[in-house]
Amino acid sequence: NLKEVVQGCLALIENSDLGIDELMQIIPGPDFPTGGIINGRAGIIEAYKTGRGRIYVRAKADIEIDERTNRESIIISEIPYQLNKSRLIEKIAELVKDKKLEGIAELRDESDKDGMRIVIDLKRGEISEVVLNNLYAQTQMQSVFGINIVALVDDQPKILNLKEVLEAFIRHRQEIVTRRTLYLMRKARDRAHSLEGFAVALANIDEIIQIIKKSSTASEARETLVSKTWSPGENVLKMLSELEPGLARPEWLDDAFGLNKDRYKISPEQARDILDLRLHRLTGMEHEKIIEEFHQKLTEIAGYQEILGNSQILMDLIKNELEEIQEEFGDERRTEICESSHDLTLEDLISEEDRVVTISNGGYAKTQPLDDYQAQRRGGMGKSATAVKDEDFVEHLLIASTHSTILCFTNLGKVYWLKVFQIPLAGRNSRGRPVVNLLPLDEGERISSILPIDDYSNEKSIVMSTANGTVKKTNLKEYSRPRSVGLRAVDLAEGDYLVGTEIVDGSKDIMLFSSEGKAVRFRESDVRAMGRVAKGVRGMRLGQEHKVISMLIPATDGFLLAVCENGFGKRTDLNEFPTKGRGGKGMIAIQASDRNGPLVGATQLFPGDEIMLISDQGTMVRTRGDEISIVGRNTQGVRIIRLKENEHLVRLARISEPSDESPGQDNLETE
């Protein structure tokens, strides 16, 4: 920016000891005519300190929300320098058409004489920050500009830092102003010399006119004027007597010319100017103008000599000229500089909040705010939480922060990484987005288990169990390097699939629950740590046609919540389940009678916890765990959810957040 550069030069002239950091306070970075946002200062700092660097320039975009439709729109008002607006719009449209860019409903150009306005309307439930960052990543809405400050210094190419380039510019200005002053002083002396000749000619005007009249050519007249010596006259003597010696005398003038005692010898240049003199200059008024102009030239010459003889005056002149340039041509900065946002991860742009994450059996994923649901009394009918197609139902549900990573384990034994904020936020009646649009799943591959991860500690491991009763423990660090194509997580036998995953720290017990209503509890240390692709060891021996349906890590003050297919369940103190070796058939956890049906879910509850119950028709009920009766192991339990005809319970999840329900409200439905 011109104003900033001028201010930096002026500051460096005032204080030559200024460092690069101080100069960067005045000149914070490049300024582009099309505006935009410089994303981070790291590249600017590197360029200004070393002479080389890269900066990331982003389009300026704002988020607007339509109050009527509650949809968000991205409004682009500035784009990076040299980026063609039409080509940018074409590129975005092409990415949307090829399904490489998700979440955009409409794209239009509303630019007019008042400025640029590109409008990108988003689909309902899309997170604008995610779409915007995808635009930055896949289009030239974020462009890279290289900085290479190379200049010729003393006829040698050199890479300069910020201070060095300003110093070189100031030295250049010193040289330019000095050379200009010398030129102007030379021209002023030449003019003063001509004016001396005019004054002498006016003092001897009659004789000069006679010489001109008698001469046959101009060259003959000039030679005659030069060959003679002339009386200088009183005006010339007075003019020259006030001068310092040599002040107005041109450097090229031979000593034979000029005033010598009481006679004046005209130079060839003066003779030429005299012959070119117009007759109206011979009047008395013009005579006075010649004397006045001569004195003016003398003043100019003295000023030039003062500039050349005093460096401070020279620098003051440079400063004044820079200030004039700033005043005439300077404008305000157009390009905004963001503090280190280049180093921010995408989740830094997303507000952290808990979300209900659901994935249906048909492969649709979505998130919903946790506070969309208020607690119901035990036995409530609930409201539909997810719109499902025929024969589809919600298969996976968990509560996780928008900043968490979800490890998605599939039926083929692979694991994929997915950020919660990447899953679209959707309403209660929306199916969500197909998982295949979020993860690169192969044909026939589906998610069988999900696990939220906040950090990859070396002291923690992931324990996973399969439907055939196999358990495996792998260090969490082995999953700390996400790959877009996924990784092999476990080697599954044919027909086997994952039913649960948990994070452990080496001191826990592990409990497995079968559809037969039985449970086995053993120490985590009974399972040695294995590699990612290992098969694991036997955790539970199963009866014919029965499968493991759940795994949990018991706590000392926890209760087991077991729920059956027909909506019945109970709480049981986990201390009633003794720790034994792994590989057994287990003990009774709940009676899987005809009334109850098979066991479909088991989780651990603490005082104040709430639970989510999901049926195969998409009905969700949120209720307090404290309202469910605590009974022994070998019992049937009580009704927890009232199911419709041909409706079955398929899933539950624990919520570690108390409800805001007021006393006396028996059946608060979803809002």
TrEMBL record:
SMART domains: TOP4c. The keyword DNA-binding applies. Gene3D superfamilies: 3.30.1360.40, DNA gyrase/topoisomerase IV, subunit A, C-terminal (2.120.10.90), Topoisomerase II, domain 5 (3.90.199.10), Topoisomerase, domain 3 (1.10.268.10). It catalyses: ATP-dependent breakage, passage and rejoining of double-stranded DNA. Keywords: Coiled coil, DNA-binding, Isomerase, Topoisomerase. It comes from SAR92 clade bacterium. Residues 308-335 form a coiled coil. One of its GO terms (cellular component) is cytoplasm. It comes from the Bacteria. The keyword Ribosomal protein does not apply. Residues 1-349 form the Topo IIA-type catalytic domain. GO terms for molecular function: ATP binding; DNA binding; DNA topoisomerase type II (double strand cut, ATP-hydrolyzing) activity. Belongs to the type II topoisomerase GyrA/ParC subunit family. GO terms for biological process: DNA topological change. Its EC number is 5.6.2.2. This is DNA topoisomerase (ATP-hydrolyzing).
